[in-house]
Specification:
The structure holds two protein chains of two kinds. Chain A is mainly beta. In chain A, 0% of the residues lie in helices and 50% in strands. In chain B, 37% of the residues are buried.
Chain lengths: 113, 113
């Protein structure tokens, strides 16, 4: 079945460092891909999305490109801030009505000043 | 625009009891999904409703049930609670097509003692 694999965390960075969180997926057909972020004690917030191959999603300095040839959707940010500390989830949906989001296990990011 | 509202935020129940959680989606969103989040299993899909009909169901026992009302509000019910049901329960709403992404509520933290 469809699945998402994220790099294991935690990822610990200093402020202004470059961030990459790897995400690869297995899916039949043409899924939509998402990155969600979860701050302590909160629900999930949609960070960015891409719905077809070669699409680039971007938001708040974060970017990810839908790479069908490598089945990847890696999250990047050029300069992280302390406020970016959170858990990041990569997810896919098979693009059919009623289908569920399939999540990776999440990557904890900790940024220190 | 109001977000997805889940009530209550926190709940403590005794093993064997039942519980009902509520979710009010974003206005205009007719699809409501429920997810269980635990440290061990991560985010797992429970079920999805659209226009009062359950379109999809995850791999959970029959003790977990849900429903959706004509105003798109949804409830989920867990009967005969077990210690392992302790989790954060997240509700997400979306337009009919999953391409648009899902907006999550802040969740209900259920503790079973």
């Amino acid at each position: 079945g469809d699945s998402v694999t994220q790099m294991e965390g935690p990822v610990t960075l200093s402020e202004e460092a470059f961030l990459t969180i790897n995400c690869t997926y297995t899916a039949t057909g043409y899924p939509s891909l998402f990155w969600y972020v979860q701050y302590p004690g909160e629900g999930l917030q949609l960070l960015l999305k891409a719905t077809k191959a070669d699409d680039k999603g971007s938001n708040k300095g974060f970017e990810a490109t839908y790479r069908k040839e490598t089945t990847s959707f890696h999250l990047e940010k050029g300069s992280v801030q302390v406020s970016d500390s959170a858990v990041y989830f990569c997810a896919l949906t098979p693009n059919q009505a009623g289908t569920a989001l399939i999540f990776g296990k999440g990557t904890t990011l900790s940024v220190s000043s | 625009k109001a977000g997805v509202t889940q009530t209550p935020r926190y709940l403590i129940k005794t093993r064997g009891q039942q519980v009902t959680l509520s979710c009010s989606p974003i206005s205009g969103h007719r699809s409501v999904s429920w997810y269980q989040q635990t440290p061990g299993q991560g985010l797992q899909f429970l079920f999805e409703y659209f226009s009062e009909t359950q379109r999809n169901k995850g791999n959970f026992p029959g003790r977990f049930s849900g429903r959706q009302f004509s105003n798109s509000r949804s409830e989920m019910n867990v009967s005969t609670l077990e210690l392992g049901d302790s989790a954060l329960y997240l509700c997400a709403s979306s337009l009919e097509s999953p391409n648009y992404g899902y907006t999550f509520g802040s969740g209900t933290r259920l503790t079973v003692v």
